[in-house]
TrEMBL record:
Belongs to the CbrA family. It comes from the Bacteria. It holds the Pfam family FAD_binding_3. Residues 4-163 form the FAD-binding domain. InterPro entries: FAD-bd, FAD/NAD-bd_sf, Geranylgeranyl_reductase. GO terms for molecular function: FAD binding. This is Protein CbrA.
Length: 358
């Protein structure tokens, strides 16, 4: 078997960032479900918005986004709607509208040549040995095995690495469903939607390159029925759908307690959503993927002993920040508190244009 110092499972924003930042003295292999280029193969379902915290990470990295990943238009506010009360508010937001798949491929293209990258692969089995881990994966229809001293799970909500490390760990999860439509609205907009009769999480919409994307997070066993119901309830509020051009779905994690953040053990590590690092109030995970990957790269590059303990300590502030998002989510998804906040008009910007969405 080929032997490596670090094996990274998944090359989304977390895995690609870690692979890029690791010292070239380390022998690194990265396994990714996505193909190297093109629109075929696995694609991460996502609304595709880059939050300010993610933008700050790119400032630290000295990176600028190429125009190929930028989507149009760039929207300066979020239309927040409570369908149960009919209250609608506009809040200023500084997100960058992106094409998520193009963004992921661009981030993967930044991984240096000394990293052994395997595209369009599927991790099948993880086995712990006396001094590391044996990884079995399929590539081109063939089964292959490698040995690694350190293992990193950057494989998202359904992380195989997390399940291997914490077989009894339970975390709240939803079925995220979104569809793409031709955008027929007079003015493009981004929205955040709440309806506790449909889901105790939240839903969203975004205008992107002539398309209108509508999605939400719903109970795992009733996702499609709840999704269709919410679409019906939005029509009186000015939402226009038509025939769906494309449908996407995936599992999304939504942490609800401090114990939901798990960093790894026994020289195996978790970063990004695999570690539970995702905002419970917005389901935004790119910024935490970048931050946790940066922290782990510093630990692995420094080397030494007790690396799991060092990584756990280094993520303390990140975990505290995510805990505050859990508190925020509980406030926003509690109908009477949400109604009180929205009726107050705090931070609301009134639209005066006759072309604005109702």
């Amino acid at each position: 078997m080929e032997r490596y110092d670090v094996a990274i499972i998944g090359l989304g924003p977390a895995g690609a960032t870690l692979a890029r930042l690791l010292d070239k003295k380390l022998r690194v292999i990265a396994l990714d479900k996505k193909r190297e280029s093109g629109d075929d193969g696995f694609k991460k379902p996502c609304g595709g918005l880059l939050a300010p915290d993610a933008q700050r990470a790119f400032i630290r990295f000295g990176l600028n986004l190429p125009t190929s990943v930028i989507a149009n238009p760039q929207i300066f506010s979020v239309k927040t709607l409570d369908t149960q009360t009919g209250i609608s508010r506009n809040y200023q937001r500084s997100y960058i509208n992106i094409n998520r798949h193009a963004f992921d491929l661009w981030m993967k293209s930044l991984v240096p040549n000394h990293v052994d990258v395997h595209h369009d692969t599927l991790c099948k089995r993880i086995e712990q040995t006396d001094d590391g881990y044996c990884i079995t994966f399929t590539e081109g229809g063939k089964e292959k095995r490698i040995f690694t001293r350190y293992l990193v799970g950057a494989d998202g909500a359904n992380s195989m690495v997390r399940r291997f490390l914490y077989p009894n760990h339970e975390i709240r999860r939803y079925q995220a469903i979104q569809q793409w439509f031709e955008d027929r609205h007079p003015v493009p907009f981004y929205s955040c939607l709440f309806d506790n009769e449909v889901t105790d999480c939240y839903s969203w919409s975004i205008s992107k390159d002539g398309h209108f994307i509508f999605g939400g997070a719903f109970p795992m066993k009733e996702g499609k029925a709840r999704y269709d119901l919410l679409k019906e309830r939005l029509v009186p509020h000015g939402f226009t759908f038509g025939d769906a051009l494309k449908s996407e779905k995936c599992t999304v994690l939504c942490p609800s307690r401090w114990q939901d953040f798990v960093c790894g053990q026994n020289n195996a590590f978790l970063i990004g959503e695999a570690a539970g690092f995702i905002s419970a109030s917005s389901l935004e995970g790119i910024s935490y993927a970048l931050d946790s990957a940066e922290l782990l790269s510093q630990i692995l590059n420094r080397g030494g002993t007790s690396l799991n303990q060092a990584y756990f300590k280094s993520t303390f502030r990140l975990r505290v920040k995510l805990l505050s998002k859990i508190v925020k989510a509980r406030i926003l998804t509690t109908p009477w508190l949400r109604k009180l906040i929205m009726k107050s008009g705090i931070s609301h910007i009134k639209q005066t244009s006759q072309m604005s969405v109702r």
